[in-house]
């Protein structure tokens, strides 16, 4: 994740004595805290993982591997949700892992801390024990832009599962997913902006940024940047089968109901979200 640019509002002309400038809201903000507030909902994800595993295996899962874990927010929520649950979070970058260890894990009980391991590694080559569920959320696997590379990742995920394991990833799409546009959402104390800056219809590559805006006019522009290929649902399902999974299912996020439901046919929407679940 790239470092963010801080934009300071221009000072107004004033005849008063020069005061040391007060740090802006942007200068005082922590981009990982803002990201947690604006983007992440780990409790809902924990519920979905439990539900999907029960549906496939008829019992509750206990071990989770969170690929592309960033700060390990979901891994920690998983371990917190039941004392029998363990989590391994894997990320290639030192910075979010260190932030997560200091700000997410360290504030939890010793029991939770003992059941979460945050590992710095490439998800395609991580040497960690097999688990019941591997999750790849917030579309992170879209950083793998060609078929061979994504297939290699899915093969590695399959090899990382225990007997009866399942793999879950999410995906977004819809008519607006390929539009170059920015969407603002008010959050407590700041505005979150999802900026679909570039989209190449020939390669389906898409460059996206997250910006945070503050009421004093300051901002964290490009606080996070994602250089992705927008995969389609059938492409992902076909690659999962090619990687050796025996079956895949799509869980659709309906506009008219609270929770995801398994589905094979839906009408196109401006934006849609799905989970794709693959079983060994
Ligand atoms: C979109 S963030 C996801 C953060 C978190 N999983 C979430 O749900 O919000 C993507 C993360 O993937 C990590 N990443 C990118 N390529 C990776 C790879 N090959 N192996 C492991 N982590 C990787 C980045 O360092 C970054 O922290």
Description:
- This protein is an alpha/beta fold and 280 residues long.
- It is built from eight helices and 13 strands.
- The protein has helices spanning 25-28, 31-39, 42-57, 73-81, 94-105, 110-114, 147-159, 233-242; strands at residues 5-7, 63-67, 86-91, 116-120, 131-136, 161-173, 181-187, 190-200, 205-213, 219-229, 247-252, 261-262, 272-279.
- The strands form two sheets. The protein has an eight-stranded mixed β-sheet.
- Helix 3 (42-57) crosses helix 4 (73-81).
- The longest helix is centred in the N-terminal third of the chain and has 16 residues, at 42-57.
- The model is unreliable at 1-11 (pLDDT under 50).
- Bound molecules: S-adenosylmethionine.
- Residues 1, 39-40, 68-70, 90-93, 96, 122-123, 137-138, 140, 143 line the site of S-adenosylmethionine.
Q: What characteristic shape results from the CA principal axes?
A: globular
At the fourth level of CATH, the homologous superfamily of the largest domain is: Vaccinia Virus protein VP39
| Multimerization state | single chain
What is the mean predicted local confidence, pLDDT? Answer: 94
User: In what order do the strands lie side by side in the largest sheet?
Assistant: 4-3-2-5-6-13-11-12
CATH topology heading of the largest domain: Rossmann fold
The succession of helices and strands, N to C, reads EHHHEHEHHEEHEEEEEHEEE
Tell me about the largest β-sheet: 8 strands, mixed
Number of domains: 2
CA radius of gyration is 20 Å
What's the end-to-end separation, in Å?
A: 32 Å
Number of beta strands: 13
Please identify the structural class as seen in this structure: alpha/beta
CATH class of the largest domain: Alpha Beta
The helix tally amounts to 8
Strand content: 25-35%
The residue fraction in helices comes out at 25-40%
Instruction: Return residue spans where pLDDT drops below 50 for at least 5 consecutive residues.
Output: 1-11
